[in-house]
Each structure stands twice: as C-alpha cells, then as structure tokens.
C-alpha cells in the first residue's frame, strides 16, 4: 500500500512539473498603444509543429487562425481590455496559457429601462466581466435630495450579488415611491464604475385601457350599424307606402273619366 502511494505521488508531481514546464514555455506581454491594447504570446523551448492559434475569453472564441508562427497576438479596445484571456497554440500536444489584463470594472445594465405595474415585483440587473472581479456592489436611488443607498434592510427591496453580477429585487411596487433612476456601482482593486437604470411604474388600471379602447370602438361600430339599419328600414317603409298609393290615384282618375263620358252622353 505504501509503495502504491509513493508511486501515485510521484506521478502527480511529474504531472505538475510537466504542466509548469508547459506554462513556462509561453511568454506573455500586454502593451497599451493608444486606444488599443495588444496581447502577445510566444512559444519557447518546444519543437512541436504549430498548426494554428486560438484566443479565448471565457467560453468565447475571439480569434482563430492556421498560421505556424510561434508568436500570436490579439488586439482589444483599451476601454474594454480588462479580463482573463487564453492563448492556445494548436499542436500536439497543445500549449496554452492565460493572459490576465487588469483594469477597473465596466459595469453595464442588462436593460437601461424597465416598466412594471404597481403591486408587481421586478428585478434590476447589472453585470461586469472585469479582472480582477468586482469585490463590492452597491445600489442606490438617485433623488433630488441626494443618493439614497439601498440595502437588504430597505423597504420592499433586497440585493443579491456575485463577482460578475448584481440584482436589485423590488417587491410590491409603489406607484408614488418606486419610479425613478437607480444606479448600480461596482468596485475592484483597480477602480469603480456604475450604470443607471430607469424604472417606470404604471397604474393597475393602465393594463385595462387597451381593452376599454377596443370595447369603445366596438360600441361605436355597433351604434353606427344600428342607426344605419334603422334608417334603411324607415326608407323601405316609405318606399312601400308610395308604391301602394300610386295605383289608387290612377284608378280614381280612370273612374272620373268614365263619369265624364256618361254625363256627356246624357247631355247629347
């Protein structure tokens, strides 16, 4: 048992040393040139055939090529540079290392404006993928009297945060007190940044206005049809009366003509 343990530890140490050697074979540099920051990786001390390069940030592939060079570079906007990058030399075996670019947080609101109905719950969210990660998040409401800091002890509000994201949960929204601008502030060892979210709260009856509008349109349409049908029927009745009285006038005129002829004969 002791022999097996010694062998196992030896293999683990060899694996660790091999990993360290693989890491140490790649030298990295970060150069700022105005609005651009250039990341460089150079593979040293390896005879492996290079079939390409790949740059990643997290799970996202930023760049990939099929060049055989032992140096690869990637440029990023200086304002968006902070984060952990991975440069990979495609070979057998693969050689890779991380390039850490330090910078202040870049806080972004998931949505710059939110709409909700009074009495509902809503979640305002901000994110930051900076390196080093945010160590302190803070929410506050911007008012004319000054910034009102929001904590888990604030009425109908509580905050949930992690290294890369913060959420302000607001329950039972009030139509008078809750609308306005909310700021999320993130801080790390390199600096601080914030984003602003505008919250609009509408009246409970606001959701009924479209329905009431449709009902009103239907009522107007029905009224117009009713009036039209009523007038049309009245016109039809008048036409029928006129058509019925016409023969009577003709018949009376004919009878009068006969009477005149009889009187003329008697006179003769």
Automatic annotation (TrEMBL):
Annotated keywords: Cell membrane, Disulfide bond, Endoplasmic reticulum, Glycoprotein, Immunoglobulin domain, Lectin, Mannose-binding, Membrane, Receptor, Signal, Transmembrane, Transmembrane helix
Keyword set includes Transmembrane: yes
Membrane protein topology class: Single-pass type I membrane protein
Signal peptide bounds: 1-22
Entries under Pfam families matching the protein: Ig_3
Record-level GO cellular component terms: basolateral plasma membrane; early endosome; endoplasmic reticulum membrane; external side of plasma membrane; extracellular exosome; recycling endosome
Transmembrane segments: 207-228
GO biological process: B cell activation; negative regulation of B cell receptor signaling pathway; regulation of B cell proliferation
Residue stretches making up the Ig-like domain: 105-198
Compartment(s) where it occurs, according to its Swiss-Prot or TrEMBL record: Basolateral cell membrane; Endoplasmic reticulum membrane
InterPro entries in the record: Ig-like_dom (IPR007110), Ig-like_dom_sf (IPR036179), Ig-like_fold (IPR013783), Ig_sub (IPR003599)
Ranges for region Disordered: 238-268
Keyword match Transmembrane: yes
GO molecular function, one term: D-mannose binding
Main location: membrane
UniProt-recorded name of the protein: Basigin
Species annotation: Desmodus rotundus
């Amino acid at each position: 048992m002791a022999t097996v343990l010694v062998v196992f530890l030896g293999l683990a140490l060899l694996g660790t040393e091999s990993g360290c050697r693989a890491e140490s074979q790649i030298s990295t540099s970060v150069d700022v040139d105005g609005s651009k920051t250039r990341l460089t990786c150079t593979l040293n001390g390896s005879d492996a055939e290079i079939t390409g390069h790949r740059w990643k940030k997290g799970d996202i592939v930023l760049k990939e090529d099929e060049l055989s060079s032992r140096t690869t570079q990637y440029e990023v906007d200086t304002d968006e540079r902070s984060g952990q990058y991975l440069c990979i030399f495609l070979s057998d075996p693969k050689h890779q290392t991380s390039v850490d670019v330090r910078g202040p947080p870049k806080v972004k609101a998931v949505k710059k404006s939110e709409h909700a109905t009074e009495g509902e719950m809503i979640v305002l969210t901000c994110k930051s993928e900076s390196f080093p990660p945010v160590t302190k998040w803070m929410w506050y409401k911007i008012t004319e009297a000054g910034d009102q800091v929001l904590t888990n002890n604030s009425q109908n509000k509580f905050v949930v945060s992690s290294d890369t994201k913060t959420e302000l949960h607001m329950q039972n929204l009030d139509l008078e007190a809750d609308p306005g601008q909310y700021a999320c502030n993130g801080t790390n060892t390199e600096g601080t940044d914030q984003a602003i979210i505008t919250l609009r709260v509408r009246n409970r009856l606001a959701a009924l206005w479209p329905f009431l509008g449709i009902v009103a349109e239907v009522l107007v349409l029905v009224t117009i049809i009713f009036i039209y049908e009523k007038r049309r029927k009245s016109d039809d009745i008048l036409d029928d009366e006129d058509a019925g009285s016409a023969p009577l006038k003709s018949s009376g005129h004919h009878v009068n003509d006969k009477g005149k002829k009889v009187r003329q004969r008697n006179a003769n």
